[in-house]
Structures
1.
Amino acid sequence: MGLRSSDMMSLTLSLALVSVVGAKESFNTTVFVPENARVGTVVAHHNTSLQLPRTYRLLDGNAYGRFGIAESQGVVEVANPLDYQIQSTYQLQILIDNGRNFTENTIVWNLTVHLLDVSRYPPYYNKTCETPETSSGIGLTRLVEFTDFFVHLSATIGYTFKDSSDIVNYKKRKVYFSFEDDSCEVNFTIGVSHDKDVAYMNYLMKADYRRLTQYSEDGKNKLSLFVVLQDYYALLDAGRIDPTWITGFNTYRYFILVSLGTLKTGTPVAFKRSVANFMAPSPYGESNLTAQITFKLAGCPHGKYGAYCDKNCTCKNDARCHGFNGACLCAPGWKGVSCDIPTPAVAIDVRPEGNMYITGNVSLQCRPVHINASSMTWWFRASRNNSSKVFIQTSRNFSISPILPETNGVYTCEATTSDGQTLERNYVLDVMECPSGLHGERCDRPCDCLHNVGCDRWAGCICEAGWTGPTCNMSCPSGTFGTNCKKLCRCENGAECNPFNGTCICPPDLTGEYCEGKQSSPFHTTHDTLQYFTLLLFILPVVIVAVVVRRRRKFLKEQRQQPVHEELQLVEVNQELNMADTLVPWERDPQYLTLGNLVGVGTFGHVVEGTLELPGELPVRVAVKTVNAKDNSGYVQADFNREMDILIYLYDRSLHMKEDEKVMHPNIIQLYGVVTLSDPKRIILEFAPHGDLQMYLKRLRDDINAVNWATLLGFAVGVSKALQELERVTIVHRDVAARNVVITDGMVAKLADFGLARDVYTNTAYEHTDHHGRDELLPLKWMALESIRDGIYSCQSDVWSFGVMLWEIASLGEEPRYPGPFRPNCCQMVNMLRQGKRMEKPEQCSIDLYRLMCQCWYDAPDHRPTAAQLEVRLGDLVEDANNRVPANDVVVFEWETTL
């Protein structure tokens, strides 16, 4: 056959069947070729014992020119990239001539080529880490850039070392990148050979500092570093080193394996680590170290990909080439590995291509590709409601001028051919920003901001600390300071307060941080002290009695008005007083806990998967919530402790039994233990293999027709049962939302509080607010009117939040959106809710389900359904869900509004 072994191709030839048909001979050959065979790979070779000149021609079966044949040699090769999904078998017909003429003594070679499906081929184009194209520059080009690299070491002996050079010095170190393109993960291995580097590695190995884990400053990436002592073949098998490194066994003494996690397009990832009072190698001794580095996807020049942008892309016809693996993103009208196979399609060209703003213009051009369109029609569907498509016009071009909030939506170009075939393409217009210098819902109000501050579409001028007013033209009123002048000064004795940072400016006769003390003369000290002591003897008993009476009256009044909320506070206080005794049965030794993959992470803590294996018991898969030991924020520790207390309290008050043992309510997350006697503090919880409800809903969006609404409403039934249990033991959850519901084994929905309550979640869900003198992050869009306005929480405020969770389910995990600002503050939310404004019905939501949501959002808490009523109503909806047809009726509700 004469095949090249380097092609690594599996090839099988069948028995040649020779026949005589008139004056022509024919024979058949069958071969098997992997679909990832490179261009130039030999597929088959016609051998003959006769030394006669021959000519070969491909007559038929070579769709889209996938194969080629040398005219005089009889060698069939791969001419263009193959793809099993597009065509798995080729029937090639090749005419062989003896050199005299093609009418006599010709031979027909019937070559059947079967493609073999290859795993993970073609390469996947992942838009999460889509790499930009860069201009060809001078010097070494890398797909991933290392920037802001800095190391600062200071030792007690007085030595200081600073290095801000590139981490990759090619005279000292070699670097090999490996990419997980399906998940956008970036890993690289550093080969250490320089004497100075080797000395550092020796010290790290002896001091058992071989592993390092560091979270990025935004908490979304984890850098893992592992030092390995010469393990060439194991690293080669794992794809972590360059195969050429194997030739120099003694070149590299150590390898540093680095994992960066997922890198996203246009999002640099910064890491910073400070270590105080650690023992550095001799002679430095006790030292302090600070190191930082930033990684970002820099991209490759056009037509290149790979870690060093040294590989050639095969993408054609204006396709984009992915920098990780060379995968091609085809333009409309093209398909195949290299986007070189035409296919009928419709494209939409958009002008302008850059940023668009409200009050601006946009032009859309419908362009048929590889089809003859007899007509082209434009349709529109608004994005803010559940309306059907609306006819716009029949034409190729369509312009929107001006762009307004109501013009946002889905624009569809529908092309029809003369034979009745219809193709369409969608374009989503979602313009949310105002042009520079304008704000307002329709961007029709000038900003006129002073001090060069920014201007928000909804809020207007974003004043710097110390300034307020529509254009930031006024300093903070007396007694206030900070951003938006929301913070109250604590200066005493009439002292002035700095409007920018709240620093008290004391007059000459006052002293102290808050100017609370007077500068006293030594001649008056004894006299003043005697006066104050005498006055205190008379006033103190009166003050004590007054405080006791006032607190007693306030306690009785609040007990009558808010029994559930007050009992919750008493539970928390009692738990704090008896924490040590309460935690004893739940305390777990960390040595029985094995930690695994990261599940979620936030600024002050994270959740990882783990295994708990207590002596004499079977191992249990668990989720481990951890608060950072270095975080000293009072409210973070308080939230963490409160969650431990409430989970233990729920277990103690539970009425549920399983095999003669008490268990948690079946719709509340199970507690397995806590770690409080050592740092870091941990809560060990039941593991939820299906994740939280919010992420579960988002995964369903890819195939809306496959959504099982009965299952989703069944999750809501489970949460309603959990709320009944909380009501029974007089506890208020205060954060009922899809993100706080987990789906465990058996597809059971359980109420939880993953993510350290108000800390882990992004600011789209939680907003800063100063509640009762304490700066908190609150889930405003999920909160009841009375909770935002008055700070009152009850079981009925949980019902309001439950209604928002139903909206999340009906919208498949969309973020709740009220009419008006996308991220309203407290005042804006209160005003909207008092005016009767509520969220609109999601597109796939039934009228009955939306009506139930709206009842959860009544102003008066007593008018909202109870958790038990919700279970009954939802049970009825579950029975009807499979037969439900989504309704697009217009429903008008009259809100109960308290002005």
2.
Amino acid sequence: MPASSPPVEPAVPRSLAAAGLPPRVRRTLEAALTLVTDEIEPHLGSMLNEFEEELFRLADQARNPGTESGYMQTLRTFRLNRSDLIPRFILELEATVAATRSPTPASVATGSAARAQPAQSGFGRLSLVDESVMDEGMVMREIASRQEARANLALHLLGQRFGVLAASPAFDTERLPLGPQSLCRAMRGAAQALDIEHDSRLLLYRIFDRHVMAHYWRVLDRLDELLDREGILAGLTYVPVRIRPSPQPQEPGASTRAADADRRPGGVGAQPARGGGTPGARAVYHASDPQRPHTGWMGEPIEGLDGDEQLASEQLQQLLSSRRELLGKLRPGKKPRPGAIIGTEDVSAALAHLQAQPLSVAGAPQTLADVKQTLLAQARQRRGAHAELSARDNDTFELLGMLFGNLDEEIRADAPAAALVKRLQVPLLRVALSDSAFFVRSRHPARQLLNTVAESAAKWLDDADFDPQFLMPLQHAVNHVVEKYDGNVEVFSVSNEQLQTHLQAQVRKAELLEKRHTEAARGKEKLEVAKLRAGEIMAGVIGDQRLPRFSRALLNQAWADVLTLTLLRQGEDSEGWNKQLELTRRIVEACSRDDAPRDPELVAHIEASLAQVGYHGEEASVIAQRLTSSRSDEEEGDTASRTELALKLKARTRLGEDAKQKKKPLPPRTPEEQARYEQLKVLPFGTWLEFVTNQQGDVVRRRLSWFSPLTDNALFVNQRGQRVGEQSLDSVARMLASGQARIVVAGHARLVDRAWQAAMHALRSFAGLGDKDAEGAGAPA
């Protein structure tokens, strides 16, 4: 019998002209490709220039002639082939876009260096993985993963739009044309044109990350705007479900401040939908809206939160002026006699003296109120008993005092970084006195440093969330500011840059660890999908045929596991699957016919297949005999043997089954819980949630790394990417509805922003203004 040749897969188009796409789809994809290539091409040029300079530098610094010769040879080869890289990159990128409607994954359609060969059956074709291939793939996956985490929401929206262009379900980030993984595959394929060694390619990829991918998130925003103008899901944006929460009884020891924060706009908890108020009402937010889900890691900057600084500053001054007027009216009696005003320069000079004084010194000020009293006492000794701060400086003291007071409620006093927050009080006070933008600019260097240090001591961090190795860089950064700051805010920028280097290293580790857990969770989902599909096919094969009850049970359990494993490993279009499907038909026929002859070959196949899912020896032989026999349960002679086998099957853990996960059925979800469930299903991967841990309202922050609407499983990790557990979407939805969990939004994600929002809320309340009056302010509120 001649060997059957494998089916020939249709050729994947390598250009838009050859893709045979509808005119509108082709025109839109051409515009998208042109936009991306025009945006990226200048950065590719600068990448090549730096790569050439780096090769020359490495050759110049080489310690032996052999290494120097190797670098110079690579440099000569690079200069010879350099002009080929950008055109090759664009061609690879076009091939990705051209395959938008191809059933073949884009990872196969592009990247000639990474194309896989057709799988061959049998162990004779197995070989060790080339370490260089594995290294390059890992480097490119890390680069793509960082961009996916940074622009998770934008990629989610683009996946929906490209799904429309492809006339298919939404694309995930792995298959998304012009997505980060597509760009990395295109670069890996284009790098082959340079004909350079493996280590040099890795150097090129790192420079590609710095020069090209660092600007990628801006390209995504422009690409999303382009597709919106082209009418591809026009007006699409992230749409969280907004629900009016039902009143919850307040526990005697619960934190009233946490409840107040939830009631404010921008809070972590759910807010009533403006203008609606009915459960399930939906509100639309733009990608830059502070209400969007927060997906970044600790210490990473959040884009799009800074507004109009001048407007925010004017509104802040109005609030402070109203506060002074009200305080003046509330103070009875005569106005105090005016005294000498202490100049801001004199205040800063006095603060510089305090800044150089260690906190451990006896009598050293511990709080901003102590600092203020110390300054006033010293000034009044020299200038008279009525010397006062200027109104502006006094407001600065008050504002920073409110900010640090709110921070104190958000950080753990026993955290290693808590003392570092106090050390920053005086330098930050000097910054705020000289630069009022500190209060209204969320990305101010001094404010960013304070946020990084404060978040390292946040109450939402569990003991395992903080990396002890990060404490030393924090101490160095704070010491650098305390020792070096003397009016130049660049000192904070330097400390920020040093911390960002360590934070990015932590983020890369966390992302790699998270990716492993996510892949494991996806593997479980694939197994569940295979089980469901195998069950459907089994039911179709059996149909209405009458089978002995015990034989049917064996088919639905033991043999169903065989089909599940085959489907999972080889796929529904494979030769192995077709073979097992034919065996299934023969088994059903043998069990349903009274005159079915014994088939030793069928028995042997069944035993071999059962061995792959854990049935061995006599157990597999007994099952195989039953699956090839039409004897009814009453005709079976050895009832004890059948009963023993049934008990063994009942006690056996089936393929992919976790006995610990068996839970009692829960009551149906309420309308509010159902709305929360629907909200969870559209959240981008990486969204942070806060879970209430006790009656005092303390929370712990967890990252929703992955979830499956099919299996209802949700994977959560901590700040270090460590798996902290899996929950069902159903249980999380019920917790959201009951107030035991909250979705963290971008405008309320950073600790300093939360503390500042609380301070602004207090000022508005004091002035008799509601939060609604603050809409449009530049500062988050």
3.
Amino acid sequence: MAPNKQWMQLVDHRLDETYLVGVQKFLDYAFERTGEQYEIRCPCVKCYNTILGTRKTVETHLQVYGIIKNHTFWYHHGERLCEPLSESESEFEFAFGDGVQVEECESEDEVEELLRDLYPNLDGRTTHTDGDDLLEEEPNVEAKRFYSLLKDFEQPLYQNSKVSKLSSLIKLLHIKSMGRWSNASFTMLLKMLKEELLPDGANLPNSYYEAKKIIKELGLSYNKIDACTNDCMLYWKEDSQLDSCKVCGASRWKIDTHSEETRNKKGKRIASKSLRYFPLKPRLQRLFMSTKTSTLMTWHKDKRFDDGIMRHPADSMAWKSFDELHPSFAVEPRNVRIGLASDGFQPFRNSKTSHSIWPVVLIPYNLPPWLCMKQENFILSMLIPGPNGPGDAIDTYLQPLIEELKELWEVGIETYNALAKKNFKLHASLLWTINDFPAYGNLSGWSTKGILACPCCNKDTSSTRLSNGKKQCYMGHRRYLPHNHKWRNEKKSFDGTEERRPPPQMRSGIEILNQVQDLEGLQLSKDPKKRKKISHENRKDNWNKKSIFFELPYWKSLLLRHNLDVMHIEKNICDNIMGTIMNVKGKTNDTIKTRLDLQEMNIRPELHHIQKGEKIEVPTACYTLSPEDKHKLCLFLKNLKVPDGFSSNISQCVNLKDHKISGLKSHDCHVLLQHLLPLALRGMLSKEVCEPLIELSLFFCILGSKELTIDNLEHIEAQNPITLCKLEKIFPPSFFDVMVHLPIHLATEAKIAGPIHYRWMYPVERWLYFLKSFIGNRACPEGCIAEGYIANECMTLCSRYLHRIDTKFNQPERNYDGGLKQSNGGLSLFCQPGKTLGAKTPFELEADELEQAHIYILKNCDEVLPYLEYGELFHIFSLLFP
């Protein structure tokens, strides 16, 4: 055990008895732990652990010159990391002289804790020979990194400074990350601090580049793997030395347009495409090595309450089924369950340049619900380069990740657990993928276009090609009704046919594997000469490839492999509804061609166009708003006021003059569909039209709840086909694109995988937007994102240990109202203070508004609750005993 080290803070009072006792204890400890009899390294401010000295010499130096104040880890003198203290904090009394107290530098303790967590297994033992010179074993790579950081940690920022060079630099870089400063502005700040504010000889670096070199050992790195320009292959493993693609023959290197050579003026060759891969193993290891996160990684086992309500993926059928099938994996709660998300994005803001970068993001689901989907816990796995998206050839780029996931499943990796202070074998598994609908097709291999666009219905997808509208419509929702339902026999109310087919069944992983077995080894390439064309018509399915995920031994046993994204489904449905009821040109599904399709199908005669001489009269549909109702709807949204954070400012999307609503983002559509449309449309449209729209809104509200029960999901699963059939009776067939069809499967997926908040794209899309902020060089956006992510990842780790400045983990809310206050005898409902914005404007409530406010208070006050319960009991007794 190491002695108490608080005596080192008395270095400026070296005649104090406490300091002298501490020196003796240090010498006893150093000679005992190193095994030396004559000399040890002297830690005084003059020798700085570089000169050997006898016990008497070291004692004299420590009394005369003083010990290095920040030398709190005695690795040169035999101390091991995480070694407990032998004495309590109260053993020494640090009051001396005229009552001056020792000042403890909390910031140094924070950085020291960080170093101890990152390098828990290092040993500072040294060996001596008979000669005077000290001989040491060559430190390994990890030890060299640690000693480099420790040297900067022990080096003061300037002479007699209470903070170290490393601590100051970490905080400066953290502020840069939080404030999103440019590299150039940070370099300017460093120069100004050194030249104008700090004493001469300050130990700050001169530029951001030098600062990054100092703290790079705190972060993790990434690998660049060259790729074929046609996405045929990666130049890695045994193919790493090739100069051309072995599939299509394309050159690996960029060719200069002038010299037509692969080498530039400096003699270097630049790859046409480079995948940036961020290894997963060290990033999972850090989750357990850090004392700040290791306890959270077993929350799903230690603190989750299993009461039949699904609040977390661990409550879901998919998680529990996986545990039953793989008990050896489930027995260790520290094994990590991961979700994979991917989507392409345009890296350049307000640009017409066609460029698409595809990040692949990993989400560790071991964390508790309030941390699981936070951006700080996302792990960037790879950056697939542009300018074009990979399409089905994304499997080419996923090879390094799949190989690492296979190793983590079969072999595992030795990991230090800071909570138990022991090593254990860490394994990991991939639960499912999260992506929008086009990316669903790229990752799963099932084409999400054409006759069989629905991957859940598989070969049983029901669709019709509209000859006039030239689009595929997906109706046939009567299949999901009970077999004796009366609507199955109705023709003209639907598509003109009777419905006798049973509902399609979800395919298991083994069934899917059997369907794609003949696509094993299919060459994925964008070179049309090398890519084999697949005829979906001949195959009778929509498979384009066998997904690379089937290389994972457990993939076929998963109940749900790919998730339908509720975010984009809500967005498309909302756009369909708003475009149709507002009759927006270019967005409505009610056009002349639509009416011709109705006439051709011989359904909805009341909507058929009427020929009057040379003119064609188009009857107004029951689902189209009148100009007056359009104005009311726009006015409602224009004057709408909602709580902060509830939605964006939707009123900015409203044009009262032209009666148009445009520019709605995905979350605006989410709020509009679930909360606003049911209120706005009542009284504007008939009951037959409003009822299914309100039912659809209620479906998404229940589906989006943070807590789900099987009973509620089974209820909306049974009700949703009825809702969609009601819509089929009202809206034209062109309204029913595949996105309107997909909600039929959402409740089933929620029963399997739990709440949708862990499986939709909202947090991922916001994170992709954050990645755009790293781009400073438009010539190489992928490199900017990679370097920016590495720096941000490092600062996120450091900010977990910083408590004296604002960080991502302790910063106040955007609009902080001061928290709860004492009610002072008033109602508890008014304990939450509010913050006014702008000048106060008095107004009087109408009688009905006053009554609504009164009822709200009565129903939401804890003080009124006993009276409400008494009233309910009184009502029950009055019914039983009239």
4.
Amino acid sequence: HNIFAKRVLSHKQPYRFPVSSSVFNQRIRNQIEPVDRAKHAEAGDLTRKIEQLLLARYAPPGVLVDANMQIRQFHGRTSRYLDPTTGEASLKLSRMAGHSLMPDLYVAIEEAKRERKTVRKRNIPFSVGREQNAIDISILPVQNDGDNETFFLLLFEEEKETKTVAAGDGDEKNGDSQRDKELLELRRDLMSTKEYLQTIIEEKDEVNQELWTANEEVQSTNEELQSVNEELEAAKEELESSNEELIALNEELHLKNTELTEANALNECTINCSMDGILSFDNGFRVKIWNPAMERMWGMRREMCLDRSLFELFPFLVENGQKEVLLSVLNGDGAIVENQPYYNRERGIQGFFEGRYSPLWDHNDGIIGGLAVIHDSTERKWAEERLLESEARFKMVMQQSPAAIEIYDLDGLLIGVNRAYEELWRVDAATMVNSFNILRDGEVDRVRLLPYVQRAYAGETVLVPEYRISSAGGRREGRWLSTRIYPLKDSGGKVKNIVVAVEDVTARKRMEEDLLKIQKLESIGTLAGGIAHDFNNILMGLFGNLTLVKNELPADHPAVEHLIDAQKSMNRATRLTQQLLIFAKGGNPVREGVSIETLVEEVVRFDLSGSSVKPVFDIDHDLWLVEVDKGQIQQVFSNLTINAKQAMADGGHLYVTMKNATVAEGEIADLAAGNYVKVIVRDEGEGIEEKFLSLIFDPYFTTKRLGRGLGLATTYSIMKKHGGCITVESAPAVGSTFTLYLPVTRMDLQQSWTTITGEEVDGAGKVRVLVVDDEEMICKVTSRFLTGAGFIVNTVLDGKEAIESYRQALEEGNPFAVVIMDLTIPGGMGGKEAVKKILELDANAKVIVSSGYAEDPVMANYSEYGFCGIAAKPYSRDKLLSVVRQALLWETDNRQIH
């Protein structure tokens, strides 16, 4: 608004003297300006009072709002435009302004915010009661200097005539309109008068101000003249005093000159005697000082270098970027360079130097050149490189070491570790370094390690006896540790640190324990194998004689039933010796074609007899024959049956399913492609937790309180040696399912396995058989089995007799068709040696190996040793005759002598 654009007396600047170098003028200004400012301040106060009167009477109404539309101040009568609404008291502009004004107000304020300048909106309609008015609105941004907060001054000015909307007399309306026009004209005249009066007041103030200023100038000039006179008198006294000072200064300079000469001599001596090279250069980088140390270091005489450019003497300064360093020195900056190479031309060697550069100043603080102090750091550089290499090797060895390395200071504080330390103790090294103290740790004291640590601090290398951590606060409880402690000494032999190397030897300890167990088991196994071998020979006699007695009695004889029961017991005894042999050596299987359904059903029913678990069988009718070690496979299914029975303590069913299966390549992990008999054994027991499934085939692992953890391990081993596999699926409270794949025999899959008797062999009455065994009873039983079938039998007690009997039969033209030879004959030649001699006599000889120790490698791979069949003791009459039949049909080309 126009009335806010004027400040009375504020536009006139106070009088200023023209610029001059005169001391007089300066003093006049210094005396006049304070008076001028005071007068001007008084005039300003009067101006503000006049403004306030004019604003109070003539300024339009308005309000001051902040950026949040909050009313901060009211100016004039704003009730016509602002009217608080009913409800909670508020100074929000949006609550005070009428609905007809608020949209235009909001738009105008936003524009003023955005443009940061005054915004004016004209002819905005608004209503007051029944009146329809139009006003102009001005928005003026106001900046608060204190906190830079922006406010907005809103001014309301009515420009148009008021319109009344109520019904009334037309003449009365016209009369009111006329009066409004007259009032508007009067207001305009009043504003013009106001402006005229304001101009007169301002001109009067200007004249008064100029008169006052001129008076002040005359008065100040007089005072200045008097002051100048006083200054001249003082200057005279100063000159006289200065003359005396110059005389004293001359004497002082003469003394200083003498001191400077002595100082220069001292500096020259210092420079020449310094072990470090010293040179100086001017602003053109020309050498001015070159001391003897520089001559020794660089191999260049002083006379050769003075007044020559540094860059000419040292071309490498440009190559390695030191030219910029020297330029910065001439700009007033100091600099340090390290490990810079140099070449000694005289001695032809290369070294390293460190340089310290600083600018040289004259007495006027001007830079006249630079100074360089050069230190030969070759030896230190090489020593540092060797130290770094040594440290790198040490760190590499330390980090790669399988042992946990711990480094402690003299106070026992841990200051360094390697990765193996974190792996051993299962801690974060950052939490232990600089916090763990070996001299104050309770666990160190508890395991009695502290005395060994103290010995190391005394300078002794210590090997700590292996010890076990039984309670380490969560750190590898129960582990066996081997510890060595080494002192680290300085060049004077003083201990500076100790190094503790800790190795977890738990695995080695366990292996030692396992090895001891294995050695014990081997001893027991050797004993068990010997017992089983001898026991099989005894059983052979018992079993054979029982069979002979049973065959001589009529089928309806009362004793036959007892003999059958005795044979069943003998079968159980045979299985027991078989288990002993497996336990003794766990040797390779002695395979033969077996009808698996009969074998499995017999084992399962036998092991479940007397329990509350009932077997349920589902067997294919055309099941293939399998090529297995009968005794070992009986052990497999016996182990599975016993485990199932123990898992179903309250009874249940054991389901056994057997069927033929052809496995493709890669279909089942670790199982070759081919034909197999698939056997599924499923129980309804308590099941096995998932976390234990991967461990159940491990030796010594068991979930049973009294278990030994060997049953399933043995089962797994037997299946692997047979070229088959076994898998398990289980869940708690559901039961376990074991799936086995047994390899099919290499014979025709459709060929039935029938027992053959001697009478069924062509010309059995003319077939001669030689039986070799050191047990006379076994010779008798075997002879009766064979003679009963129509064979002609001769018996001998050892290998030498067998060789002689075979040679004699060949010479007589009546050779033995088959030889049944015991593998092991104590004190005599056994079958392994004797068969070679017999084959030398007759390459077509057919020799059957017999032994009560069926796990011997010869029994498992008999053809490689020259045999054509095996008869594992104890054997039945039918089994023996079947083996003899196979031997008679044996093709000698199948023999692969080992």
